[in-house]
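Subject — a protein and its fold

Tokens — whole-number codes for backbone shape
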Amino acid sequence: MPKTRLVAPALAKPGRAGATGGPRVAGFLLAFTGSVFALAGCGIPVVGQGNLALRGTEDGMVEASKATLAKRLIVGFSTAPSKTALSQIEKSTGTKHVKSIRNVRMSVFEASGDVRKARKALLSTKGVDFVEGELLPEREPIKMQMEPLLSLGITDDGDPNRKDQWYLDTIGAPKVWEAAGTLKPVIVGLVDTGVDLEHPDLKPILVEGWNAADPGKPPMDEAGHGTMTAGCVAAVHNNGQGIAGVSNNAKIKPVKIGNSASSMVEAMMWAADNSDMISMSLSWKPGMPDYPGVVESTKRAAEYVMGKNVPMACSMGNTGNSQRNVPSAFAGKEVPNLIAVGATDNSDKVTSFSTYGPWTTVSAPGRSIMTTTMRGRYSRVDGTSFSTPITAGVMAMMLGKGMAKDPAVIRTKLMNTAVDIEAPGQDDKAGAGRIDAFRAVME
């Protein structure tokens, strides 16, 4: 890599999806199998920190500490309460109203005393549908063998590590690039840990995003995960360095979430309001020690996305069993047109780590995926985290070719054109099969 100083664009977005929230990195189950990178909040080493001196506008609320978030509860209502009703709830439950999230009938309250008592009081309040913890649950990442980070060379043209991207040929992406002609640009809302805004293989395809973790700052990646998923979708083609993303027409809108359930909800909503489609490689296991988890709040956010008619791909997770990770577990029945993506390997087999269930929509390559990572570097990684943006890249080309921006249409086409690799027809492991980019875009 040349020793060129790259300046990140000012990508902070002052607008909000409802209220605002967010710290720096979240404690959630990243849908990739990694031990070298994970979340700073989990006490696990971070690959790179990026240029955190970059600042955006100072509009919005910075998320509270984890200790404070642990005292907070996110409450779902049947109908949005008035200011008077919120004040009455504060008095009757011994809580303080922190904020409300428009359009999804949710509010955040902070307990002044015992959190369990506050939760019980809120649950007994008329018009309350659910009460969940505001602090997102933390999960240990699944360990894997990962190659060292690579600083790839530069050539006069092409992408020097294109030869290591076996997955592009497996799904037929290069055939689309050759046959489809010029595709219209499509904005992909990448709901994740942010993106390395200075990465030379990503910077040209980034557009203004939003930091739900800290609305006053750009969505700079501190964990590395979002930078990896961004490269799968849309790393720049034929720029003489690194790799090529699946799509040649996608623009990435980084939407960074924080440690709170409300920041996750707001990030999904903001992405739906400001993007053509969404890729989300984050998932949560239902259940927490004291609270129901983040099931209902995540579901409402996913319903909001579908209500906006925005196609969305989400990762199944890497548990290797039928655990109901959310939001992917909502696909099929509860939030019908979500696209839940499992992982396959270079032998066209479902990987041993890929979570499965009747909600699996399709599968895509997710083992030994060469992609971008922090500080302008690259690595091979595993996980449904990467199957998802690979699928999102295909979805971006489908939209760019003129397919209707309709979640049901995109989902059905992906399923009908997939390569059946497991039991005949729809199955729990591979869904409808491994995605076929050429058929999905060109037929």
Remarks:
- The CA atoms of residues 384 and 421 lie 17 Å apart.
